[in-house]
Amino acid sequence: MKYEKAQNLLPENIIELIQEYIDGGYLYIPRKTNNRKSWGEGTETKKDLKERNIEILKRYDEGVSAKELTKNYFLTENSIRRIIRQEKKVV
């Protein structure tokens, strides 16, 4: 998201109307519902986390303890166990 100058995009009468509500402040305009993106859609984060979670399950199945995985992935033991449960459901 980047900032745009209202005077470069909107007609003067619209700017004056908005100024009645928020004069000189910042205003966030949300995307239209049909243009919204789901979480992680604009980046590789979702894919990267999925790959990490598959790797965690693989290493766990190879005998690496949940406690050891917490040290390698900087996650809590509860998070590691949740990831293992979720990934086992997918497989």
Considering the chains and any ligands shown, give keywords for the structure:
c-mor_Regulatory_Protein, 91 residues, 56% helix, Mor transcription activator domain-containing protein, Homeodomain-like_sf, mainly alpha, YraL-like
Describe what you observe in this structure.
With 91 residues, this protein is an all-alpha fold. It has one domain (6-90). The protein contains five helices and no strands. The chain has helices at residues 6-9, 12-19, 45-61, 66-73, 77-90. Helix 3 (45-61) packs across helix 5 (77-90) and helix 4 (66-73) packs across helix 5. The chain is elongated, with a radius of gyration of 23 Å. The mean pLDDT is 91.
What is the H/E string?
HHHHH
Radius of gyration, taken over Cα atoms and rounded to an integer in Å = 23 Å
Gross morphology: elongated
Biggest beta-sheet profile: none
Q: Look at the structure and give the mean pLDDT.
A: 91
Separate helix tally: 5
Compute the number of structural domains: 1
Helix content: 55-70%
Uncertain regions: pLDDT < 50 for 5+ in a row? none
What fraction strand?
under 5%
For the secondary structure, the number of strands is: 0
Supply the helix-strand structural class: mainly alpha
Oligomer: single chain
The N- to C-terminal Cα distance equals 37 Å
